[in-house]
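Thread title: Can someone regenerate the structure for this chain?

I was given the following input by a collaborator and told the matching structure tokens would be attached. They weren't. Posting the sequence so someone can regenerate them.
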Amino acid sequence: MPTIARFEDIAAWKLARQLCARLGKMIDEGLFKNNYRLISQIEGSSGSIMDNIAEGFERGMRLEFITFLGYAKASCGEFRSQLYRALDRQYLQQAQFDELFSLSFKISVMIYRFILYLQKTPIKGLRKK
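Best answer:
Regenerated them for you:
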């Protein structure tokens, strides 16, 4: 696996960015009505996925990065739980739910596999050479 120079090159971060954009478009279209609490929570958890990947990478140490990837993965789970709430309130159609659920689950799997890889690599990070 080639060395990643920027967090923007991480495939899971790119997909998380797409997830945020898709969710944001749905929010902007008014699909979540005026449920500002749910909007805040679901938008926050989706943003947290990409933000934790970025923050962990920028810390420059493998073990810290793994920790933040764990936070990002947890945010994927939180996001999926909030999707169920949106579906149950009929803010989303089943197809919209399925699209966001599938994308967030794919990101979660990618993060998990990345964590497994990082746990096995001898690379310690930029701050620990």
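The chain has one domain: 8-120.
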